[in-house]
Amino acid sequence: MAARRALKAVLVDLSGTLHVEDSAVPGAQEALKRLRSAPVTIRFVTNTTKECKRDLLERLTKLGFDIAENEIFTSLTAARNLLEQKQVRPLLLVDEKALPDFTGVATEDPNAVVIGLAPEHFHYEMMNKAFRLILDGAPLIAIHKARYFKKKNGLALGPGPFVTGLEYATDTKATVVGKPEKTFFLEALRGTSCAPEEAVMIGDDCRDDVGGAQDAGMRGILVRTGKYRPGDEDKINPAPYLTCESFPEAVEHILDHML
Amino acid sequence: MAAQDGGAKMAAWARGVRGLLLDISGVLYDSGGGGGGAPIAGSAEAVRKIKASGLKLRFCTNETQATREKFVKKLQGLGFDISVAEVTAPAPAACRLLKERGLRPHLLVHDDLIPEFAEIDKTNPNCVVVGDAAENFSYANVNEAFRVLIGLEKPVLISLGRGRYYKETDGLKLDVGAYMKALEYACDVEAEVVGKPAKAFFESALAEMGVPPQQAIMIGDDIVNDVGGAQQCGMRAVQVRTGKYSKRRETEPSRQLSAVTAERQEDSGRSGTRGTVCSVPRPGCLREKPGHRLQKATWLPCCQASFRRQCGRSVLCAEIAGPAFQASADSAARARTRYGAGMLGRRFLSANRNYWDRGKKS
Fold this sequence. Notes:
The structure holds 2 protein chains of 2 kinds.
Chain A: E1 9-13, E2 19-20, E3 23-24, H1 28-36, E4 41-46, H2 53-62, E5 72-74, H3 75-86, E6 90-93, E7 112-115, H4 124-135, E8 140-142, E9 148-151, E10 154-157, H5 159-170, E11 175-176, H6 182-190, E12 199-203, H7 206-215, E13 219-223, E14 242-244, H8 247-258
Parallel strand pairs in A: 1-4, 1-12, 4-5, 6-7, 7-8, 8-11, 12-13, 13-14
Antiparallel strand pairs in A: 2-3, 9-10
Chain B: E1 19-22, E2 29-31, E3 37-39, H1 43-53, E4 56-60, H2 68-77, E5 87-88, H3 90-101, E6 105-108, E7 127-130, H4 139-150, E8 157-160, E9 165-168, E10 171-174, H5 176-187, E11 192-194, H6 199-209, E12 216-220, H7 223-232, E13 236-239, E14 298-302, E15 305-309, H8 329-336, H9 346-358
Parallel strand pairs in B: 1-4, 1-12, 4-5, 6-7, 7-8, 8-11, 12-13
Antiparallel strand pairs in B: 2-3, 9-10, 14-15
Helix pairs in contact in B: 4-5
């Protein structure tokens, strides 16, 4: 086996890894402090489509985590980067609370469509508007293609089905920017000037966090908190580089074995 | 040979044709708007001509925004000679299927279609039926259908058609197919399609008309659901350039595209090139010459415009021009520039044939 390059960057998932809803994973704050003592760049990555960076930061600071705004990379950021790269003006079908992450992006006379989790926009009229734009050549950018998610009163459709419907109707393919797409992880690492082989991802979602990261060339550590279910580690191939109890244990392993 | 009352000759390629299946939306009229829709110029007259000619006629529609009674009444109001008995539509076909298999549906359909399911038990649903629900495609409604489907041990999703979109007077709108795909993706199931382009649907329309597929022609605006689906059954099909037809795939704007093949995948990279006369067409094709079948699609010149035909399928790619069409090159050229006009009928088709016979090559 080829010698591994030294670890230079750590990507940390938020929901389910550092915190679960409104309470922090026990010991996570101290673990983060210890990780900062190491010579690694840290990035906090999440697939959220409903919270802008400021809201995320506020929530994490309240829970006692020491995080800077520029260390947070969300799928919204990835979408914004793509819009700037393609120089297009989007029709934003995203949650209102996500709009602050798109300030400065022109939206008049749209020639692109961005879809996030925004049930209030998924009605017939708005879907037709998006459909006509895409049929005329506008690129379709999906924050992610989650099929559904769990709400208090049952399951609810995610953006995935609606993106699929539009892909079918327009005979095009959406560009998906969130986890587990490779581009998401590569974008997250862009600001760190580290190669994927020099980075590790810590997350609770085996397919989206660990699987996606490993497909991008990184190593993945699966933690048994959040949405983890026993047996998840067998669901991806190759298996996670490491499966451990929680974020603090993952940090221990990194400090002891990976630097 | 069909009975000839009109006195006009049948085009050579159409010999042996005894019946026509007509799509409605996009062929006879465009839906939407205040009055329920607008007829496409010349279409009502063409329908009368077909009926007067002795050819059998059946309307084969995927319309699911209203009951057949309501729909036919609307068309009669727009001047069409049509009755409920002449219409093959998905909802009644779906009802037969539901009864056969003991299925109790959760309906995600247009309000005006619900009466078609009046006799069906809808309590404690064990399947989902999705139609062209239009404004009923709210997030809440689609979500509810999803919850029913995902909660079933054996999810059954029945879709009334799989069209991608259709044209209304105020623009293109998403059709049932998009929402069928959405539910398929969400629940990881495959829908069963009742309606075009399902073979069973065309076959039942042909049976109701009493004409075998080889003696029938389908006329439609949807290359996949009308033309493609009909040809899969062994019928010939005509693509009209009204309704949802789009010249999107034309790469030479100066040349009027007058034909589209059933195999859309083959379109890419081949549209707009000038062709040479097909010298070995298959019998029954536009240019009947003794010979063997072509192995692949070939460009053929016609009426000063090139069109594309795929041998082996007997796709009849004819341009449907407006009422101003005269059997003269100039008029035909003028008529060709007018999209949106439509006139069906043997007169046009046989007149068109004159061009081919004159050997006008482009």
